[in-house]
Structures
1.
Amino acid sequence: MVLSKTASESDVSVHSTFASRYVRTALPRFRMPENSIPKEAAYQIINDELMLDGNPRLNLASFVTTWMEPECDKLIMAAINKNYVDMDEYPVTTELQNRCVNMIAHLFNAPLGESEVAVGVGTVGSSEAIMLAGLAFKRKWQNKRKAEGKPYDKPNIVTGANVQVCWEKFARYFEVELKEVKLRDGYYVMDPEKAVDLVDENTICVAAILGSTLNGEFEDVKLLNDLLEKKNKQTGWDTPIHVDAASGGFIAPFLYPDLEWDFRLPLVKSINVSGHKYGLVYAGIGWVIWRSKEDLPEELIFHINYLGADQPTFTLNFSKGSSQVIAQYYQLIRLGFEGYRNIMENCQENAMVLKRGLESTGKFNIISKDNGVPLVAFSLKDRSRHDEFEVSDFLRRFGWIVPAYTLPPDAQHITVLRVVIREDFSRTLAERLVLDIEKVLHELDALPSKVLMPPVIDGVKENGTVIKKGALEVQRSVTEAWKKFVMAKKTNGVC
Ligand SMILES: *Cc1c(COP(=O)(O)O)cnc(C)c1O
């Protein structure tokens, strides 16, 4: 009897999880704990804390996939212990990534012969893909300048001010100047004419965006190609184009097959796309495809000999999971062109449902375009009492995560709310969101204005009367000033 008593006191697996001491004591946050805890307790503690994260399906801030079919979830879990870089050990995984590269290259109309293999690589996401593409351009440009005996220490890239933050990262990490075309009222993407004006002999490439992160709009890559061809002829340079198709690369081929934005345009030398956005795979996969072997300088490629065959690799990191590559292959063969087109059409229709619903409130200007990445970006017509940040805050209470942000220069006076329409955002949810936005607008109308009146300097009006600010007003102006300060420091967090 004594024995069984001892067992029940010491054996934690006997206790109800919430009666065990592990959920009653605080866990160390900065140092690794001295002792082990039971696996059930570890699971429960972490799972409980994670409940406070947002619900990914209601996270309308992100393009990144939040739902896949259970069959694919199974494949992902089965491959979770495979290191992608062990190509000798996992030759099939390597083969699947090569098939994906080829399928995507053909989707982007790479000029490939019948049995010619495409040049490209799977990455962690578009950011890594963009670093690689940028490096290839930089090295090619440097080699050419060296051969001509010209200085090669001041490379630059021309982009729109609407570029995603990863371009700024590339510029800073790899010491390339970013020359940004400013936006303007009513035009929120890179103006091809202005971009070509900024091109000089040190420009390693012009980066166009297919699907601006801010409002989903496609930049006019064809016009850019034509203008740049003309300039190249006049100057004797051969400035190329990279297309950042992170979000639009899996939209345009299905919804706008006649739109020329890809390798059909001769100056487009490389394209990146996020497999984890409209490629429909969970976070952790992107692709970069080059037009041809000549566009990827040989000295950047590492050759791994696997199974007697040459496997060229060109990535920034070494080890990573295999699951995402396998999941991408699953989606490509499971859905096929037909399946992707159906899903993208559905997303587009749901975007239109949401757009019409927002328009019918009469309270919003729509900043996104009907042709583009399926998203709705909108701003308040009347900001005199409340702003978009408050709408965003209030929506959070219904569970919706809808980001609000200001546009880059010279359109920084415009704030937008953005809803990304993904595969798993159904029509019912779109309609529900409109209802909840209407509720939020009603609630806000009933509240005192939070948007500040222009500050009264020193509390003295022009006519000399002294105005004393109420404590609340003072607090608000301090908060507002800090908000502005923080916003100015922050680069856009939307992805
Ligand atoms: C999302 C996005 C990126 C960054 O891509 P990741 O896959 O998140 O690394 C780059 N450019 C554009 C236009 C994007 O939308």
2.
Amino acid sequence: MKKEPLGIGFIGSGFITRFHIQSFTAVRDAEIRGIWSPNRKHASDTATYARSLDLGDTKAYDSISDMVSDPDIEAIWLCGPNHKRVENMEEIVAAAAQRMMPLKGIACEKPLARNVGEARQVVELARKAGVPTGYLESDLFAPSQDAGRRLIWARGAATTGRPYLARAAEEHSGPHMPWFWQGDLQGGGVLNDMMCHSVLLVQHLLTRPGEPHSTVRPVRVTSHIASLKWSRPEYARLLSKTMGKKVDYRKHPSEDFASATIEYETNEGTTAIGEVTTSWSFVGAGLRHTTELLGPEYSMTHNSLDTGLRVFFSREVKGKQGEDFVEKQNSETGLMPVLPNEASAYGYENENRHFVRAFQSATLPELTFEDGLEVVQILMTCYQSAEQGKTLNYPPRGLDSYIPLVARGKWKPGK
Ligand SMILES: NC(=O)c1ccc[n+]([C@@H]2O[C@H](COP(=O)([O-])OP(=O)(O)OC[C@H]3O[C@@H](n4cnc5c(N)ncnc54)[C@H](O)[C@@H]3O)[C@@H](O)[C@H]2O)c1
């Protein structure tokens, strides 16, 4: 029997909303019916974009409350900036309480919030409202990671023992909007922005398919952060010029490099290690995800820039800067990799298909706000470890009220 489509409303009309909308062309049983953004024109342009892809009769709304009050909207995809998470959630749940039919779900982009205190507020608001939640972590749904994980566990792990080392890195040359660079608004630097992907991915890869992530428990965390590029005077000046005066890395830098080693105890009593690294100081063709999973007699590797398609443009080819080959593209000439369907390759299609099905059928999705909270707890432990220059047992004390120095504008690189 054909299902009624799930009516989705988006909060935010920025970069990630566009990615999600594009991915919905490959998702059945969903319609994008609403967009809200504080900028009315951006909301209407994004609604026009969704309609142009035949994703529904998408309307731009004047407020979150208006959108959530509309019975045509059945689920919310929360894609606003990090510093508005709690405020956005408060408005969603207040309007949801007035509905005749309850919302079927709220899915929220990474990171769930800027710090543990805020993440707990987000979890609590949803719990009190009784709305099912989904934590949007696209990496776990990327077809390559998923296929690699299944094969490794079905063949290598089944016959020679579980994997013991997972490595993941996500790197590019820096975010597109000023708020990402501002520690107080974003919650930190690249560690908060991008290591959220890798810390969950390594735990997921090390977890036997079908078992919960809690079977691979983090027990010790060692982390390091640095400002390698963007606090150099010439780059700090360039950053202020392109991102505005509020982004001044001579006075208030955020880290543009972070690494962490996370030690896990598995439910079988064995030790496993996750090695994660991330940077905004990587200049290559564009965004690069690299992943490895290793066990006693096997290994898996993936590099998102090893695409099947490459183009070459000589120095005679002059053109505008763009991201038409790959996200966060750094060049339009030379030999360049092309990723034709990024919405699929990065996992957005599978991710949205999964959450639509879960909300439609009222079943528990693979990732909820609780998973998002756990990720924030690990990230904050990484900041604490980096600040103290030592390995910490997980969870350390005082996590709930902890705010990283970077987010308080007090971090001094190298100290
Ligand atoms: N999964 C991923 O790989 C990925 C990639 C990029 C961004 N993200 C996450 O998605 C979220 C949005 O990032 P983005 O790249 O789209 O940022 P962006 O700056 O491009 O867009 C943010 C959007 O939020 C809107 N906004 C402004 N004020 C708001 C408010 N008060 N309430 C709600 N929305 C408001 C803006 O108008 C804009 O449309 C962030 O939390 C970010 O971490 C995830």
